[in-house]
Amino acid sequence: MATIKSSNEHLTFNADGSAKEIRFQANGTQKASISSAGAFTSTTIDATVLTGNLPALSAANLTAIPAANITGTLPANSIDSAHYVDDSIDTAHYAGSSITLAKMASNSVDSDQYVDGSIDDAHLATGISASKLIGALPAISAASLTNIPAANITGTLPAISGANLTGLVATVAGLTDATVSASDPAVTANPSAVGHLWLNSSSGEAYICTTATTNANTWTNIGPGTGSITPFQGMVATGGTITTDGDYKVHKFTSSGTFQVTTVGDDGTVQYMLSAGGAGGGNGQFSGGGGGGGLLTATGFSVSASSYSIVIGAGGAQQANGNNSTGFSLTCIGGGHGGNASYGNGAGNHGNAGGSGGGACAHQGSQSWGGGAPTAGQGQYGGDSNNAGHSSGHIGAGGGGRDGAGVASNSGGTAAGSGDGGGGLVSTITGSTLYWAGGGGGNQFYEDGGDGGIGGGGGGCNASGGTGGSGGGSALNAGGAGASASYPSGQGGSGGANTGGGGGGSQGGGGSTGGSGIFIVRYKFQ
Fold it and tell me: Model-level pTM?
Protein backbone atom coordinates (compact mmCIF):
# COMPACT_ATOMS: atom_id res chain seq x y z
CA MET A 1 0.00 0.00 0.00
CA ALA A 2 1.39 3.42 -0.95
CA THR A 3 1.04 6.38 1.44
CA ILE A 4 1.97 10.05 1.41
CA LYS A 5 2.88 11.63 4.72
CA SER A 6 3.69 15.25 5.41
CA SER A 7 4.98 17.21 8.34
CA ASN A 8 6.14 20.73 8.95
CA GLU A 9 9.52 19.90 7.39
CA HIS A 10 9.29 16.79 5.29
CA LEU A 11 7.18 15.19 2.63
CA THR A 12 7.29 11.45 2.85
CA PHE A 13 6.48 8.99 0.04
CA ASN A 14 6.04 5.45 1.09
CA ALA A 15 5.79 2.44 -1.21
CA ASP A 16 4.79 -0.60 0.77
CA GLY A 17 5.71 -3.99 -0.54
CA SER A 18 8.81 -5.76 -1.59
CA ALA A 19 10.81 -4.35 -4.52
CA LYS A 20 8.46 -1.48 -5.12
CA GLU A 21 9.69 1.89 -6.31
CA ILE A 22 8.51 5.45 -6.38
CA ARG A 23 8.05 6.77 -9.93
CA PHE A 24 7.93 10.33 -11.28
CA GLN A 25 5.88 10.90 -14.37
CA ALA A 26 5.03 13.83 -16.60
CA ASN A 27 2.15 13.56 -18.97
CA GLY A 28 2.13 9.81 -18.51
CA THR A 29 5.87 9.45 -19.28
CA GLN A 30 8.26 8.27 -16.55
CA LYS A 31 11.10 10.71 -15.99
CA ALA A 32 12.72 9.29 -12.84
CA SER A 33 12.37 6.63 -10.17
CA ILE A 34 13.59 5.68 -6.72
CA SER A 35 13.99 1.97 -6.12
CA SER A 36 13.20 0.23 -2.87
CA ALA A 37 16.95 0.14 -2.29
CA GLY A 38 17.13 3.93 -2.61
CA ALA A 39 18.75 4.12 -6.02
CA PHE A 40 17.73 7.18 -8.03
CA THR A 41 17.42 6.80 -11.77
CA SER A 42 16.69 9.57 -14.26
CA THR A 43 16.67 9.58 -18.05
CA THR A 44 17.63 13.25 -18.28
CA ILE A 45 19.42 15.52 -15.81
CA ASP A 46 19.76 19.20 -16.62
CA ALA A 47 23.37 19.96 -15.87
CA THR A 48 22.51 23.67 -15.40
CA VAL A 49 20.56 22.94 -12.27
CA LEU A 50 23.40 20.94 -10.69
CA THR A 51 25.34 22.87 -8.05
CA GLY A 52 28.10 21.98 -5.72
CA ASN A 53 30.32 18.97 -6.04
CA LEU A 54 29.23 15.56 -7.11
CA PRO A 55 29.86 12.93 -4.52
CA ALA A 56 32.41 10.20 -5.16
CA LEU A 57 30.94 8.15 -7.94
CA SER A 58 32.16 4.99 -9.70
CA ALA A 59 32.76 5.35 -13.44
CA ALA A 60 33.22 1.67 -13.93
CA ASN A 61 30.22 1.42 -16.18
CA LEU A 62 30.74 4.66 -18.13
CA THR A 63 31.27 4.13 -21.85
CA ALA A 64 31.86 6.30 -24.93
CA ILE A 65 33.33 9.22 -23.00
CA PRO A 66 34.71 11.70 -25.65
CA ALA A 67 38.40 12.36 -25.05
CA ALA A 68 37.74 16.07 -25.62
CA ASN A 69 35.62 16.06 -22.43
CA ILE A 70 38.55 14.92 -20.30
CA THR A 71 40.64 17.82 -18.99
CA GLY A 72 43.54 18.11 -16.64
CA THR A 73 46.41 15.68 -16.11
CA LEU A 74 46.04 12.12 -15.02
CA PRO A 75 48.19 11.26 -12.03
CA ALA A 76 51.28 9.16 -12.63
CA ASN A 77 50.63 5.46 -13.03
CA SER A 78 46.91 6.02 -12.57
CA ILE A 79 46.15 4.08 -15.74
CA ASP A 80 47.98 0.81 -16.37
CA SER A 81 47.48 -2.07 -18.77
CA ALA A 82 44.95 -3.60 -16.43
CA HIS A 83 42.57 -0.74 -17.29
CA TYR A 84 42.70 -1.31 -21.06
CA VAL A 85 40.43 -3.71 -22.80
CA ASP A 86 42.32 -5.71 -25.43
CA ASP A 87 42.48 -3.85 -28.76
CA SER A 88 40.74 -0.79 -27.21
CA ILE A 89 43.70 1.49 -28.12
CA ASP A 90 45.02 1.21 -31.68
CA THR A 91 47.89 3.02 -33.49
CA ALA A 92 45.54 5.73 -34.73
CA HIS A 93 45.26 7.02 -31.11
CA TYR A 94 49.02 7.39 -30.55
CA ALA A 95 50.63 10.72 -31.26
CA GLY A 96 53.77 10.45 -33.35
CA SER A 97 56.80 9.52 -31.20
CA SER A 98 54.63 9.81 -28.07
CA ILE A 99 55.82 6.47 -26.76
CA THR A 100 59.62 6.28 -26.29
CA LEU A 101 61.93 3.80 -24.61
CA ALA A 102 62.34 6.27 -21.77
CA LYS A 103 58.61 5.99 -21.02
CA MET A 104 58.71 2.21 -20.90
CA ALA A 105 59.81 0.42 -17.78
CA SER A 106 62.66 -2.07 -18.16
CA ASN A 107 61.46 -5.46 -19.33
CA SER A 108 57.89 -4.12 -19.40
CA VAL A 109 57.39 -5.41 -22.94
CA ASP A 110 58.37 -9.01 -23.58
CA SER A 111 57.39 -11.66 -26.09
CA ASP A 112 54.14 -12.25 -24.17
CA GLN A 113 53.00 -8.74 -25.14
CA TYR A 114 53.37 -9.34 -28.90
CA VAL A 115 50.72 -10.95 -31.02
CA ASP A 116 52.20 -13.44 -33.47
CA GLY A 117 53.12 -11.66 -36.68
CA SER A 118 52.59 -8.18 -35.19
CA ILE A 119 56.28 -7.25 -35.77
CA ASP A 120 57.33 -7.63 -39.42
CA ASP A 121 60.66 -7.12 -41.22
CA ALA A 122 59.98 -3.42 -41.77
CA HIS A 123 59.95 -2.82 -37.99
CA LEU A 124 63.15 -4.68 -37.22
CA ALA A 125 66.16 -2.48 -36.74
CA THR A 126 69.23 -3.35 -38.77
CA GLY A 127 72.43 -4.38 -37.09
CA ILE A 128 70.98 -6.62 -34.38
CA SER A 129 74.15 -7.83 -32.70
CA ALA A 130 74.68 -11.49 -31.93
CA SER A 131 75.00 -10.63 -28.24
CA LYS A 132 71.27 -9.86 -28.22
CA LEU A 133 70.47 -13.41 -29.25
CA ILE A 134 70.30 -15.98 -26.47
CA GLY A 135 69.42 -19.60 -26.34
CA ALA A 136 69.30 -21.91 -29.35
CA LEU A 137 67.61 -21.10 -32.62
CA PRO A 138 64.75 -23.40 -33.42
CA ALA A 139 65.04 -25.87 -36.28
CA ILE A 140 64.50 -23.92 -39.50
CA SER A 141 64.83 -24.78 -43.19
CA ALA A 142 67.89 -23.60 -45.10
CA ALA A 143 66.33 -24.41 -48.47
CA SER A 144 66.32 -20.75 -49.55
CA LEU A 145 69.81 -19.84 -48.31
CA THR A 146 72.27 -18.85 -51.07
CA ASN A 147 75.89 -17.62 -51.28
CA ILE A 148 77.02 -19.23 -48.05
CA PRO A 149 80.83 -18.75 -47.87
CA ALA A 150 82.59 -22.09 -47.61
CA ALA A 151 84.78 -20.64 -44.86
CA ASN A 152 81.67 -20.36 -42.68
CA ILE A 153 80.94 -24.08 -42.87
CA THR A 154 82.62 -26.09 -40.14
CA GLY A 155 82.54 -29.71 -39.20
CA THR A 156 81.75 -32.57 -41.52
CA LEU A 157 78.84 -32.53 -43.91
CA PRO A 158 76.53 -35.50 -43.58
CA ALA A 159 76.10 -37.95 -46.40
CA ILE A 160 73.83 -36.34 -48.99
CA SER A 161 72.37 -37.46 -52.29
CA GLY A 162 73.83 -36.08 -55.49
CA ALA A 163 70.90 -37.25 -57.60
CA ASN A 164 69.92 -33.71 -58.53
CA LEU A 165 73.42 -32.35 -59.07
CA THR A 166 74.14 -31.22 -62.65
CA GLY A 167 77.32 -30.54 -64.62
CA LEU A 168 79.18 -33.55 -63.22
CA VAL A 169 81.19 -35.71 -65.65
CA ALA A 170 82.37 -39.26 -65.23
CA THR A 171 85.28 -39.20 -67.73
CA VAL A 172 88.32 -37.02 -68.40
CA ALA A 173 87.08 -36.47 -71.94
CA GLY A 174 83.94 -34.91 -70.50
CA LEU A 175 85.87 -32.12 -68.81
CA THR A 176 85.82 -28.71 -70.45
CA ASP A 177 89.57 -28.20 -69.97
CA ALA A 178 90.78 -31.61 -71.17
CA THR A 179 91.06 -33.39 -74.51
CA VAL A 180 91.45 -37.11 -75.15
CA SER A 181 92.66 -37.85 -78.68
CA ALA A 182 94.43 -40.58 -80.61
CA SER A 183 97.08 -38.06 -81.70
CA ASP A 184 99.34 -35.45 -80.16
CA PRO A 185 98.21 -31.83 -80.07
CA ALA A 186 99.39 -29.46 -82.78
CA VAL A 187 100.50 -25.90 -82.18
CA THR A 188 97.27 -24.91 -83.94
CA ALA A 189 95.13 -26.86 -81.43
CA ASN A 190 93.74 -23.83 -79.60
CA PRO A 191 92.58 -24.46 -76.00
CA SER A 192 90.47 -22.03 -74.03
CA ALA A 193 93.34 -21.21 -71.65
CA VAL A 194 96.67 -22.38 -70.33
CA GLY A 195 96.52 -25.50 -68.16
CA HIS A 196 94.46 -27.44 -70.69
CA LEU A 197 95.20 -31.17 -70.48
CA TRP A 198 95.74 -33.25 -73.63
CA LEU A 199 95.96 -37.05 -73.43
CA ASN A 200 97.10 -39.16 -76.38
CA SER A 201 95.03 -42.33 -75.99
CA SER A 202 97.28 -44.21 -78.45
CA SER A 203 100.77 -43.42 -77.13
CA GLY A 204 99.93 -42.59 -73.53
CA GLU A 205 101.64 -39.21 -73.85
CA ALA A 206 100.23 -36.35 -71.78
CA TYR A 207 100.60 -32.65 -72.46
CA ILE A 208 99.73 -29.41 -70.69
CA CYS A 209 99.25 -26.15 -72.58
CA THR A 210 101.72 -23.71 -71.04
CA THR A 211 101.39 -20.91 -73.59
CA ALA A 212 98.06 -20.19 -75.23
CA THR A 213 98.46 -18.13 -78.39
CA THR A 214 96.12 -18.59 -81.32
CA ASN A 215 97.65 -21.10 -83.75
CA ALA A 216 100.99 -20.87 -81.89
CA ASN A 217 100.42 -22.79 -78.66
CA THR A 218 103.04 -24.51 -76.52
CA TRP A 219 102.21 -28.03 -75.29
CA THR A 220 104.62 -29.26 -72.62
CA ASN A 221 105.09 -33.03 -72.41
CA ILE A 222 104.32 -34.25 -68.90
CA GLY A 223 104.01 -37.94 -69.80
CA PRO A 224 106.59 -40.74 -70.03
CA GLY A 225 107.85 -39.56 -73.43
CA THR A 226 110.08 -36.69 -74.44
CA GLY A 227 109.66 -33.68 -76.66
CA SER A 228 107.23 -30.88 -76.11
CA ILE A 229 105.20 -29.36 -78.91
CA THR A 230 106.12 -25.72 -79.33
CA PRO A 231 105.34 -23.08 -81.96
CA PHE A 232 107.80 -22.89 -84.82
CA GLN A 233 110.53 -20.33 -84.18
CA GLY A 234 111.27 -18.86 -87.57
CA MET A 235 114.41 -17.28 -88.91
CA VAL A 236 114.82 -13.51 -88.73
CA ALA A 237 117.06 -11.74 -91.23
CA THR A 238 117.57 -8.46 -93.07
CA GLY A 239 118.98 -7.36 -96.41
CA GLY A 240 117.78 -6.87 -99.96
CA THR A 241 114.15 -6.46 -100.95
CA ILE A 242 112.00 -8.63 -98.67
CA THR A 243 108.67 -10.14 -99.71
CA THR A 244 106.43 -12.78 -98.11
CA ASP A 245 105.23 -15.98 -99.76
CA GLY A 246 102.96 -17.81 -97.31
CA ASP A 247 105.11 -18.92 -94.37
CA TYR A 248 108.30 -17.90 -96.15
CA LYS A 249 110.33 -14.72 -96.48
CA VAL A 250 112.13 -13.99 -99.75
CA HIS A 251 115.15 -11.65 -99.86
CA LYS A 252 116.01 -10.42 -103.34
CA PHE A 253 119.39 -8.76 -103.97
CA THR A 254 119.48 -6.95 -107.32
CA SER A 255 122.61 -5.10 -106.25
CA SER A 256 125.40 -5.81 -103.80
CA GLY A 257 124.55 -5.80 -100.09
CA THR A 258 124.57 -7.79 -96.84
CA PHE A 259 122.36 -10.65 -95.78
CA GLN A 260 122.22 -10.42 -91.98
CA VAL A 261 120.81 -13.34 -89.97
CA THR A 262 119.78 -12.13 -86.51
CA THR A 263 117.82 -15.22 -85.39
CA VAL A 264 118.52 -18.67 -86.82
CA GLY A 265 115.26 -20.17 -85.49
CA ASP A 266 114.28 -23.82 -85.37
CA ASP A 267 115.17 -24.63 -88.98
CA GLY A 268 118.39 -22.74 -89.59
CA THR A 269 118.45 -23.53 -93.32
CA VAL A 270 117.64 -21.53 -96.42
CA GLN A 271 117.08 -21.97 -100.13
CA TYR A 272 119.24 -19.75 -102.29
CA MET A 273 119.84 -18.90 -105.94
CA LEU A 274 122.92 -16.99 -107.09
CA SER A 275 123.41 -15.87 -110.71
CA ALA A 276 126.32 -14.04 -112.33
CA GLY A 277 125.91 -11.43 -115.04
CA GLY A 278 125.13 -12.65 -118.55
CA ALA A 279 127.59 -12.04 -121.39
CA GLY A 280 127.30 -9.58 -124.24
CA GLY A 281 126.59 -10.83 -127.75
CA GLY A 282 129.16 -10.91 -130.54
CA ASN A 283 129.50 -8.07 -133.02
CA GLY A 284 129.40 -8.15 -136.83
CA GLN A 285 127.66 -10.19 -139.47
CA PHE A 286 126.78 -13.71 -138.36
CA SER A 287 127.93 -13.08 -134.70
CA GLY A 288 126.94 -15.47 -131.93
CA GLY A 289 124.75 -14.83 -128.88
CA GLY A 290 126.18 -14.28 -125.39
CA GLY A 291 126.05 -17.04 -122.80
CA GLY A 292 123.92 -16.78 -119.67
CA GLY A 293 125.60 -16.07 -116.33
CA GLY A 294 126.66 -19.02 -114.21
CA LEU A 295 123.90 -20.00 -111.74
CA LEU A 296 124.00 -22.00 -108.50
CA THR A 297 120.98 -22.94 -106.38
CA ALA A 298 120.29 -25.24 -103.45
CA THR A 299 117.86 -25.95 -100.64
CA GLY A 300 118.64 -26.86 -97.04
CA PHE A 301 121.72 -24.62 -96.92
CA SER A 302 122.67 -24.05 -93.26
CA VAL A 303 123.31 -20.52 -92.04
CA SER A 304 124.32 -19.03 -88.72
CA ALA A 305 123.52 -15.79 -86.96
CA SER A 306 126.05 -13.71 -88.85
CA SER A 307 126.53 -11.35 -91.79
CA TYR A 308 126.95 -12.57 -95.38
CA SER A 309 128.41 -10.24 -97.97
CA ILE A 310 126.63 -10.38 -101.34
CA VAL A 311 128.18 -9.13 -104.61
CA ILE A 312 126.01 -8.91 -107.73
CA GLY A 313 127.85 -9.10 -111.06
CA ALA A 314 126.95 -6.74 -113.86
CA GLY A 315 126.09 -7.94 -117.34
CA GLY A 316 128.87 -7.96 -119.93
CA ALA A 317 129.10 -5.31 -122.63
CA GLN A 318 129.03 -6.27 -126.28
CA GLN A 319 131.85 -8.74 -127.00
CA ALA A 320 132.58 -9.03 -123.23
CA ASN A 321 131.98 -11.69 -120.61
CA GLY A 322 129.55 -11.11 -117.74
CA ASN A 323 130.85 -10.34 -114.25
CA ASN A 324 130.97 -12.80 -111.38
CA SER A 325 128.52 -12.82 -108.44
CA THR A 326 129.37 -14.05 -104.93
CA GLY A 327 127.39 -14.98 -101.85
CA PHE A 328 127.54 -17.58 -99.06
CA SER A 329 131.23 -18.03 -99.97
CA LEU A 330 130.16 -19.20 -103.44
CA THR A 331 131.16 -17.68 -106.77
CA CYS A 332 129.16 -17.80 -109.97
CA ILE A 333 131.07 -17.12 -113.19
CA GLY A 334 129.91 -14.53 -115.68
CA GLY A 335 128.62 -15.79 -119.04
CA GLY A 336 130.95 -16.14 -122.08
CA HIS A 337 130.46 -13.63 -124.92
CA GLY A 338 129.38 -14.59 -128.43
CA GLY A 339 131.81 -15.17 -131.31
CA ASN A 340 132.57 -12.25 -133.60
CA ALA A 341 132.10 -12.37 -137.35
CA SER A 342 135.30 -12.88 -139.29
CA TYR A 343 136.37 -14.06 -142.69
CA GLY A 344 139.55 -15.36 -141.20
CA ASN A 345 140.25 -18.21 -138.87
CA GLY A 346 140.75 -16.59 -135.48
CA ALA A 347 140.04 -17.23 -131.84
CA GLY A 348 137.39 -14.51 -131.86
CA ASN A 349 135.22 -16.60 -134.11
CA HIS A 350 134.59 -19.10 -131.37
CA GLY A 351 132.13 -18.57 -128.53
CA ASN A 352 133.88 -17.60 -125.31
CA ALA A 353 133.89 -19.78 -122.17
CA GLY A 354 132.01 -18.63 -119.06
CA GLY A 355 129.22 -19.62 -116.71
CA SER A 356 127.42 -20.66 -119.89
CA GLY A 357 129.42 -20.50 -123.15
CA GLY A 358 128.90 -17.97 -125.92
CA GLY A 359 127.61 -19.01 -129.37
CA ALA A 360 130.07 -19.25 -132.29
CA CYS A 361 129.87 -16.98 -135.30
CA ALA A 362 129.03 -18.19 -138.80
CA HIS A 363 131.47 -18.01 -141.75
CA GLN A 364 131.04 -17.37 -145.41
CA GLY A 365 133.77 -19.85 -146.13
CA SER A 366 134.02 -23.44 -145.20
CA GLN A 367 135.18 -22.97 -141.63
CA SER A 368 133.10 -23.96 -138.60
CA TRP A 369 133.71 -22.56 -135.17
CA GLY A 370 132.98 -24.01 -131.74
CA GLY A 371 130.70 -22.67 -129.01
CA GLY A 372 132.13 -21.58 -125.64
CA ALA A 373 132.50 -24.06 -122.78
CA PRO A 374 130.49 -23.65 -119.56
CA THR A 375 131.57 -23.72 -115.91
CA ALA A 376 130.75 -27.11 -114.45
CA GLY A 377 127.48 -27.11 -112.60
CA GLN A 378 126.68 -23.53 -113.58
CA GLY A 379 125.62 -23.55 -117.24
CA GLN A 380 125.65 -25.11 -120.73
CA TYR A 381 127.70 -24.89 -123.97
CA GLY A 382 127.24 -22.21 -126.56
CA GLY A 383 126.13 -23.37 -130.02
CA ASP A 384 128.62 -24.29 -132.77
CA SER A 385 128.63 -22.81 -136.26
CA ASN A 386 127.92 -25.21 -139.11
CA ASN A 387 129.06 -23.93 -142.49
CA ALA A 388 129.86 -26.07 -145.50
CA GLY A 389 130.72 -23.30 -147.86
CA HIS A 390 129.22 -19.97 -148.75
CA SER A 391 125.46 -19.71 -148.34
CA SER A 392 122.90 -17.03 -148.07
CA GLY A 393 122.08 -17.81 -144.46
CA HIS A 394 125.06 -16.73 -142.45
CA ILE A 395 123.50 -17.57 -139.02
CA GLY A 396 125.42 -17.04 -135.78
CA ALA A 397 124.91 -19.69 -133.07
CA GLY A 398 122.97 -19.09 -129.85
CA GLY A 399 124.63 -18.64 -126.46
CA GLY A 400 124.25 -21.32 -123.82
CA GLY A 401 121.62 -21.05 -121.08
CA ARG A 402 121.62 -22.45 -117.54
CA ASP A 403 119.62 -25.52 -118.54
CA GLY A 404 119.93 -25.63 -122.32
CA ALA A 405 122.81 -25.41 -124.82
CA GLY A 406 122.81 -22.75 -127.52
CA VAL A 407 121.42 -23.88 -130.85
CA ALA A 408 124.02 -24.28 -133.61
CA SER A 409 123.95 -22.16 -136.75
CA ASN A 410 122.82 -23.61 -140.05
CA SER A 411 124.44 -22.86 -143.38
CA GLY A 412 121.21 -22.45 -145.20
CA GLY A 413 119.33 -20.79 -142.41
CA THR A 414 116.37 -23.03 -142.94
CA ALA A 415 116.47 -25.24 -139.85
CA ALA A 416 113.83 -24.25 -137.30
CA GLY A 417 115.34 -22.60 -134.26
CA SER A 418 118.73 -22.09 -135.83
CA GLY A 419 120.80 -19.74 -133.68
CA ASP A 420 118.36 -19.61 -130.73
CA GLY A 421 119.76 -19.08 -127.25
CA GLY A 422 119.70 -21.93 -124.73
CA GLY A 423 116.91 -22.08 -122.15
CA GLY A 424 117.33 -20.90 -118.57
CA LEU A 425 116.65 -22.60 -115.23
CA VAL A 426 113.05 -22.71 -113.99
CA SER A 427 112.57 -21.93 -110.29
CA THR A 428 109.80 -21.00 -107.84
CA ILE A 429 112.10 -19.54 -105.22
CA THR A 430 110.33 -16.16 -105.39
CA GLY A 431 106.90 -17.75 -105.12
CA SER A 432 106.35 -17.44 -108.88
CA THR A 433 107.48 -19.76 -111.67
CA LEU A 434 110.27 -17.93 -113.50
CA TYR A 435 113.23 -18.80 -115.73
CA TRP A 436 116.78 -17.54 -115.16
CA ALA A 437 120.03 -17.15 -117.15
CA GLY A 438 118.83 -17.85 -120.70
CA GLY A 439 121.32 -17.55 -123.60
CA GLY A 440 121.31 -14.81 -126.26
CA GLY A 441 120.18 -15.48 -129.86
CA GLY A 442 122.60 -15.40 -132.80
CA ASN A 443 122.72 -12.72 -135.50
CA GLN A 444 121.56 -13.69 -139.02
CA PHE A 445 122.09 -11.85 -142.26
CA TYR A 446 119.17 -12.88 -144.45
CA GLU A 447 117.04 -15.05 -142.20
CA ASP A 448 115.28 -14.10 -138.98
CA GLY A 449 117.52 -13.51 -135.99
CA GLY A 450 117.79 -16.22 -133.33
CA ASP A 451 115.42 -15.91 -130.39
CA GLY A 452 116.76 -15.28 -126.91
CA GLY A 453 116.58 -18.25 -124.58
CA ILE A 454 113.67 -18.37 -122.12
CA GLY A 455 114.75 -16.66 -118.97
CA GLY A 456 115.96 -13.26 -120.14
CA GLY A 457 118.10 -13.95 -123.23
CA GLY A 458 118.29 -11.16 -125.80
CA GLY A 459 117.25 -11.80 -129.40
CA GLY A 460 119.75 -11.66 -132.28
CA CYS A 461 119.38 -8.98 -134.88
CA ASN A 462 118.66 -9.47 -138.59
CA ALA A 463 120.80 -7.66 -141.06
CA SER A 464 118.65 -7.96 -144.17
CA GLY A 465 115.56 -9.72 -145.42
CA GLY A 466 114.06 -10.82 -142.08
CA THR A 467 113.11 -9.85 -138.52
CA GLY A 468 115.10 -9.77 -135.33
CA GLY A 469 114.81 -12.53 -132.78
CA SER A 470 112.44 -12.11 -129.84
CA GLY A 471 113.68 -11.70 -126.30
CA GLY A 472 113.43 -14.57 -123.84
CA GLY A 473 110.35 -14.27 -121.63
CA SER A 474 108.95 -15.99 -118.50
CA ALA A 475 111.61 -14.11 -116.59
CA LEU A 476 111.84 -11.49 -113.86
CA ASN A 477 112.57 -9.11 -116.76
CA ALA A 478 112.26 -10.29 -120.37
CA GLY A 479 115.19 -9.99 -122.75
CA GLY A 480 115.11 -7.39 -125.49
CA ALA A 481 114.28 -8.21 -129.11
CA GLY A 482 116.89 -7.90 -131.85
CA ALA A 483 116.66 -5.25 -134.57
CA SER A 484 115.18 -6.12 -137.98
CA ALA A 485 116.65 -5.35 -141.47
CA SER A 486 119.44 -3.48 -139.75
CA TYR A 487 122.34 -3.68 -142.17
CA PRO A 488 124.95 -2.36 -141.78
CA SER A 489 124.65 -1.61 -138.04
CA GLY A 490 121.78 -3.35 -136.21
CA GLN A 491 121.73 -4.13 -132.49
CA GLY A 492 121.00 -7.40 -130.79
CA GLY A 493 118.61 -7.41 -127.81
CA SER A 494 120.08 -7.08 -124.32
CA GLY A 495 119.58 -9.69 -121.64
CA GLY A 496 116.84 -8.99 -119.04
CA ALA A 497 118.02 -7.01 -116.01
CA ASN A 498 118.83 -9.20 -112.98
CA THR A 499 118.13 -12.41 -114.87
CA GLY A 500 121.70 -13.32 -115.87
CA GLY A 501 120.48 -13.59 -119.50
CA GLY A 502 122.96 -13.31 -122.39
CA GLY A 503 122.78 -10.56 -125.03
CA GLY A 504 121.87 -11.25 -128.68
CA GLY A 505 124.35 -11.06 -131.57
CA SER A 506 124.68 -7.64 -133.25
CA GLN A 507 125.27 -6.47 -136.85
CA GLY A 508 128.09 -4.04 -136.24
CA GLY A 509 126.01 -1.82 -133.92
CA GLY A 510 125.95 -1.33 -130.14
CA GLY A 511 123.65 -2.88 -127.52
CA SER A 512 123.42 -6.63 -126.96
CA THR A 513 124.68 -6.36 -123.36
CA GLY A 514 124.13 -9.18 -120.89
CA GLY A 515 121.62 -9.01 -118.04
CA SER A 516 122.92 -8.35 -114.52
CA GLY A 517 123.01 -11.11 -111.93
CA ILE A 518 120.89 -11.65 -108.80
CA PHE A 519 120.93 -13.33 -105.39
CA ILE A 520 117.74 -14.68 -103.80
CA VAL A 521 117.30 -16.26 -100.35
CA ARG A 522 114.14 -17.98 -99.15
CA TYR A 523 113.47 -19.30 -95.64
CA LYS A 524 110.61 -20.19 -93.34
CA PHE A 525 109.77 -17.52 -90.83
CA GLN A 526 106.57 -18.96 -89.28
Answer: 0.64
